[in-house]
Amino acid sequence: MELDRAALLPELGVDVARYADDARARRFELTGDDLRSLEEGVSDPATWSRAELRAVLEQPELRALADAHDVSRRLLAWLRERVEARALTLLTELLAAEDEAASRVSAALDAQAVAGAIVEGLRFERGADELGALLRVAPVPMAREILHGLFAEGATRSDARYFLTQLAYSFEPQRWLEVWAPERVDSAEAIALTRVLIGLGLDVLLADMLALLPPTSASAALEALDPERLPAHEQTIERLARQSVDGVSTLVGKMTHSTAPEVRSYLGDLLRRHDTLPWDPREFSRACRHLGGDDEGREVLVDLSRSTRLDPQLRLSALNALRGDTERLGRAAAWRLRELVEPPELRAALKRIRKT
Q: What is the Cα–Cα distance from 223 to 216, expressed in whole angstroms?
């Protein structure tokens, strides 16, 4: 049977005379570099060990005869020595195989050690397709360790971020949600994640992932965004606002630098919804001046200036931002019974406005 299959190989159908012509033209000879490379490989024990390991991994019959722990140790040693496409492919095929021997070897692998060897050995020049294929079939603990390791590298290395962008084309980004451990993501990783997903145009996935991050990491990721992108992350910003004003103060400052109407509108809604927060007076005053740039924003200022839940000093900032808009300023300063218990400074300001 094997001979029959071999006889069908295309190279056996080539005219013998062609081989003779190639031999006379010395086309089969190796160059000096080829010979040196071959000699080095033959004299290197690791070459023979990897060749044997490849045979075991490629052949189910040999896998069944091999010791699972020995195979797993040798595979890990290979990855620690060099992370090459063939090693990643063999590991992928092993994890995807359904025979009992492959399952034993897979179970014997130390997921954290394998992930560490891969991340440390990657040169971020090639191998994204092979690694993507591996991540599709790898157990969640192994895939998680690899991803977190890659994003940790991406926090300081642009080539790692570019590699991650390439990786996403072969490893479905939606699987990130399946294997991610959001509680482990620090601020640097979160920023790297944000840059990669924005580069891929995966804004929806980014919103889903930021919603899962710890407050400090989520805040750092949002601060890395252009202000025009912030309204798309309302869910995360609302969570931060409920937990601490510190998490959104910087974001409010970023939004004041945008002239986009949708950003100004979102800023107004944010301040109106969270008028009980102890906003930083300078940031709040800057936000009020920004809201005074259009009619919608000035309506927000009227509401803020009359909010009994807002700090009186912040209400004064809203009133000051309405100067020049007589009609709205009049509505903001209209007398009401509540004014009798307002702080003296605020009462005096309201009276001055009504007299003008």
A: 11
Q: Residue 51: is it exposed, middle or buried by C-beta count within 10 angstroms (0-12/13-18/19+)?
A: exposed
Q: Report the distance separating Cα 61 and Cα 223, nearest Å.
A: 55
* Closest among 308, 320, 259 to 284, alpha carbons compared: 320
Q: Which amino acid is at 80?
A: R
First and final C-alpha spacing in the chain: 105
The b-or-e profile of 19-39 (16+ CB within 10 A means b, else e) is eeeeeeeeeeeeeeeeeeeee
Given a contact cutoff of 8 angstroms between Cβ atoms, the answer to whether 70 and 78 are in contact is no
The DSSP call for residue 11 is G
**Burial bucket for residue 297 (CB in 10 Å: 0-12, 13-18, 19+):** buried
Choose among 159, 147, 228, 236: nearest CA to 193: 147
Distance of CA 154 to the CA centre of its chain: 9
pTM flag (> 0.85): no
Question: What contacts 340, CB < 8 A, 6 or more positions away?
Answer: none
pLDDT, tens digit (0-9, with 9 covering 90-100), for 15-49: 767 767 767 777 667 676 665 665 555 555 456 46
pLDDT in tens, 301-329: 999 999 999 999 999 999 999 998 999 99
